[in-house]
Batch of 3 targets.
Target 1
Amino acid sequence: MLSLSPILVFMAVYLVGSLLAGDFYKVPLTIAFLIASVYAVCITPRLKLKERITVFSRGAGDENLMLMVWIFILAGAFARLASEMGAIDATVNLTLMCLPDSMLLPGLFLAACFVSLSIGTSVGTVVALTPVAVGIAEQTGTSLPLIVALVVGGSFFGDNLSFISDTTIVATQTQQCRMNDKFKANIYIALPAALIALVIYIAIGVQVEAPADVTLNGWYKVIPYLAVLVLAVSGMNVLAVLSIGIVLAAVIGMLSGGFDFMGCMSCMGEGVLSMSELIIVTLLAGGMLALMRQGGGIDYLIRILTQRINGRRGAKFTIALLVIFADICTANNTVALITVGPMARDIADRYGVDRRMSASLLDTFSCFAQGLIPYGAQLLMAAGLASISPFDIMGYLYYPMLLGVAATIAILFNYPRKYA
């Protein structure tokens, strides 16, 4: 129990500090994890201080965590570079222009799905598309909370499935499976939910007309996103995929006049720095969890959680509840995955759950929970950009709701059978 207490210290610092500040983003995650990590070093039993620091450092320097750090660095550089060279605007306009006017709402949902799948971040998609959604709502008279919810819901499609999404990276690395294998297992759950949401939006938006002034400037700017998606699905190493994406985005950006060589370097630097908090949190969490495992806390927690499990179905529900609880406490699905990922892998191995399926369930239920908490970054960002309340948006978040239902059904009926 004592070895598990660093998690409680982290939650107490983060939750209490956030509640006192009245803002869940006033307390830096890095500081909350730093305090919990120092506490973990202090309370670990039967080891000298130097040995505790060694255990912490080995946990932080685990080869799987280091791979995650490399992926975060390259993903940050690619996302910032592609955004600066105009790929987001080109992607959105291309998607909207390919659809008839009556398909505007489902078209915007598809645009959010495609952009998030390409850039791998739900927050980035919300920031990029919410202003577009607000403008469309004003021009067409469509309900503003509804059209903003289209963007937020679609953003979680890519957050759940994209090969450069931090949640996908963490889920696959903690479960030690390949990204394309996790994608194949995950698509069986996410795609039906997305199609049902799309049908709902088609029914709602059949009378809406698209604005007439949408133009496509530079279709070739979509190439880096398409290349990353195609190469990743083909099974190429993710570091190679991101490197190719960076080269394509840099070359196209410089040739099109989006930036010069020094501007390219500056964009890449900004992208890497944007990942700094996530990298630090990853290292601190890895070290803290290593100390918890050293003290027997992880084994104890797994015994408590699994003592009533009967077979694979119970193990899957336990994994789902673990990540939902962690996400509600941290308001960050990536941090939730970092926190409970190693525990989920141990449960999966003990009860014969396919690691591809455990990675899929971790990612899916983290996106489900993150999509429905009003203090999550995505809803707060969207509400701020649209000048409405997060609670106004929540009632229209059909995709996250359907994603949770689809994942629950998958557990109940051992679907997909290939991974059961």
Target 2
Amino acid sequence: MEQKELICIGCPMGCALTITMDGGQIVEVSGNTCPKGKAYGEKEVTNPSRTITSTVRVLGGESPLVPVKTRTEIPKDKIFACMEVLHGIAVRAPVAAGDVLLEDVAGTGVPVVATRGVGKK
């Protein structure tokens, strides 16, 4: 049996979780004080993923940058590839909140969307 120790980020409590595994199968999640902790622990050891927030350059805009995020979570091992792609792109103003700025970031199939609008100069 293998045990993994995590701090849950599912709610503000920050519970210390212990995930017990046997041959890659989850046997038990303990230490959680709410159901979110169990779900977070199971997901984190089997398929860790994150929603990415960043900025993208804007050409001809009132602001040089627009805040963006991935529409859904991406695999944790794709974070650096995602950030590299976002660092290398620029979009033309105007940009509206909710605009899809990139259809498929780093081969994840997940779009990147603007979270705020940027008008033209």
Target 3
Amino acid sequence: MGRIFNINGACQPTKHYMVDLELRLKTIKLMIDAGEYFTINRTRQYGKTTILRALAKFLKNDYEVVSLDFQRISSLSFESEQVFVAAFSEELLSGVKNFPDKIKEKLTSFVERRARINSLQALFKVLNLWCEKSEKPIVFMIDEVDTATNNQIFLDFLAQLQAGYLDRDETSVFQSVILAGVYDIRNIRKKIRQDKEHRQNSPWNIAADFDVDMSFSAEDISGMLSQYEEDYHTGMNIEKISELIYEYTSGYSFLVSRLCKSMDEKLAGTGSFKKNTVWTRAGVLEAVKRLLYERNSNWG
């Protein structure tokens, strides 16, 4: 089966038509090289997971990259510090295959509740030791992080990360921490406590600004359509169609892919549209019209 336009979940180069992410990845790597801790917060279907997975591959020669998804940790795991430490350790053991034996044993003791103390403090002592023993600096990425923001355990977890960042001249810590989600977690104190002091004292106020543009430019769209054209030779005017799609979507990645998918899979072969004639102004306008009448969870 050939590649398709993807609107569900992360994109994979071998399966989906994609924009070229290299410039974005190089820009993010500069932040990581500088030791920045930061948050990628964008609305749903904006390519956060795709960029994180591509980044993990992009960094693998220079860094030990650890990727977790907080959707895999149930809400019950945030009921107490001990339960969270066990669940978090279990996810680490599942996602990382080359732990030093001592670190692996410590994390296993948290999972099996054999540790003398299952606390965040004890967990971070083990993580710091891991950073010290690792052959490469460790980049730590957590996707869907805001699924956990409505509880104190998560605030305490962020506070431990922040404390390590502030003591990094004296303690071995993660080279970079990247937290991805829909909301800016620098403001999550507002969701839990309403007093003025806590609104001004976020546990993640060390985060650097993330200014990388995640939207698609007309040039990005052109690159994606060029891949499609190599497969199907429709004769489309790639530059004009790309500019038209950008005009109607402002580069929101979901909308770009949704329009392209509609033209390729729904419009081609119906009415007056064939595989080669759908990639025209008339085809784009018909896809936009259909999209406006479509019920979709991304805009209600």
